Amino acid sequence: MPLLPLLSFARTIARTVATGCVLFAAGAAAAEPHVRIEAPAAGATLDAMEQNRLVYEVDPGPRGDHVHVYVDGEEVGILRQLRGSYTLETLSPGDRELCVKVVNKAHTPIGVQQCVKVRVD
């Protein structure tokens, strides 16, 4: 069997593997840990007399375990689902900051979070 077709085939395989590795690496980079608060939107006005819902989606990454919910820096909830909603207790009127933070198994924030500022009337 001639050696030239084998070398050509080997080069094609090597390029395919290299391209696949680059695509895999790019896909892995796209899956960075994140928190996304889908509702309420930043700047929204919430009704103080209603139960308001915080809708979220999280990828905790390899260092994260679950998430905590904060209102004005005070922890108000622990969430184990990566996607869902959380009913906020009655909020007093004024400007409020709602945060979802990824924490590790020791309940320590790992720096992956999102916060939104809202107005409660």
Q: Average pLDDT, to the nearest integer?
A: 84
- Could you list the spans in which at least 5 consecutive residues all have pLDDT below 50? 16-29
Question: Which range best describes the helical content: under 10%, 10-25%, 25-40%, 40-55%, 55-70% or over 70%?
Answer: 10-25%
Note the beta-strand portion. over 45%
Number of strands: 8
Q: Provide the CATH topology of the largest domain.
A: Immunoglobulin-like
Domain module count = 2
Please summarize the sheet with the most strands: 5 strands, mixed
CATH superfamily of the largest domain: Immunoglobulins
How far apart the termini lie comes to 82 Å
- The number of helical segments is 1
Outline: elongated
Spatially, the strands of the biggest sheet line up as 2-8-7-4-5
Structural class: alpha+beta
| CATH architecture descriptor text of the largest domain | Sandwich
Give, in order, the helices and strands.
Answer: HEEEEEEEE
What gyration radius follows from the Cα positions, in whole Å?
23 Å
CATH class of the largest domain: Mainly Beta
Please characterize this protein's 3D structure.
The chain has 2 domains: 1-31; 34-120, Immunoglobulins (Immunoglobulin-like, Sandwich). It has 1 helix and 8 strands; from the N terminus they run H-E-E-E-E-E-E-E-E. The protein is α+β, with helices and mostly antiparallel strands and 121 residues long. Strand 4 (66-71) and strand 5 form a beta hairpin. It is elongated, with a radius of gyration of 23 Å. The chain is 23% helix and 46% strand. The strands form 2 sheets. The chain has a 5-stranded mixed β-sheet with strand order 2-8-7-4-5, with no helix packed on it.
